[in-house]
Amino acid sequence: MESVSIESHETRSGAEGLQAAGRGGERPRLTAGDWEQAALDLIAESGVGAVAIEPLARRLGVTKGSFYWHFSNREALLQAALARWEQSDVEALMRQVDRVADPRARLELLFRRTSRELRTHVIYAALLKALDHPLVQPVMQRLSQRRISYLAVAYRALGLSRRDAMHRARLAYSAYVGFLQMMLQLSLPRMRPEEFEEYIDHVSAVLIPPEPPIALNP
After folding, report:
1. 15, 59 contact by CB (below 8 A)
2. Residues 93, 37 share a domain
3. Of 2, 30, 63, 218, which has fewest CB within 10 angstroms of its CB?
């Protein structure tokens, strides 16, 4: 699991005046991004409910005043952390995959790259457990719809009809979500690396339509 490396260690103070100190006192040595990253690490390890200001401050080795310099409350941090994850999880990956011109090779690369993004899988699985949270539900709904739409466009590029492309996109996404829930939430034994690679090969073979046969001249 990735961790946030912080070089500064501020002296702890009492609870009194922490928010005032964060707003108008010492300048913070941490950025908002550092707090967002730490929140995502905590979500991956212990779930959304574990995100709290004091544990994060201890984790980062700072006072709570550093937090209040950037965020008004826990909900503001959680919203910013989720936005950070959504942007990096979808946009960065899609930009890399979009560089591949061939639609079949693009889908194969998407499946393989997605299968290797272990950290975002863990965060995704943790967020699935918190769909009743008012900040989590819209992010997951938006992200899922974006992924399904992206898959549908990719399948359309292979020549599938609009309806068949959407069916295939939903099937592919359901396979992804179901696999995460099975492996991470049910705590099933982890697959060996070679077994997992074989599984990804099988998924690609099943979900990516084969190339049409080349017509031979009579």
Report:
1. no
2. no
3. 218
**In this predicted model, what pLDDT tens digit does every residue of 96-120 receive, in sequence order?**
788 888 989 999 988 888 877 778 8
State the pTM of this model.
0.77
CATH number of the domain where residue 41 is located: 1.10.10
Nearest to 150 by CA among 116, 115, 119, 106: 106
The token pair that represents 46 in the structure block: 């212990």
Q: What are the Cα distances from residue 64, in Å, to 18, 27, 34, 78, 120? A: 6, 13, 14, 16, 27
Domain that includes residue 125, residue range: 82-207
Whether residue 209 contacts residue 158, with contact meaning beta carbons closer than 8 Å, is answered with: yes
Q: How many CB atoms lie within 10 A of CB 106?
A: 17
Q: Please, are residues 63 and 10 in contact by the beta-carbon 8 Å criterion?
A: yes
Tokens of 66: 């550093």
